Description:
The chain has three helices and three strands, in the order E-H-H-E-E-H. It is of the alpha+beta class. The protein has one domain. Strand 2 (about 45-50) and strand 3 (about 50-55) form a beta hairpin. The termini are far apart.
Amino acid sequence: MRGRKRAVKPPTPAAAYSISEFCQAHGISLSSYFKMQREGIGPKEMRVLGRKMISLEAAAAWRRAREL
């Protein structure tokens, strides 16, 4: 078996964004994110082991709510 390469598995897709990942993915600054949260128009957050996360479903719902 010498010289055989192991099959590389594709990475597991993320199921949730951290706040900074959400901001990067949506092209907004952290200050804009927190301003939207204070105004009640930010995405729904969830707690995962003490961290605030945004699920992919919550991010999609937030985007749909902003569509014209």
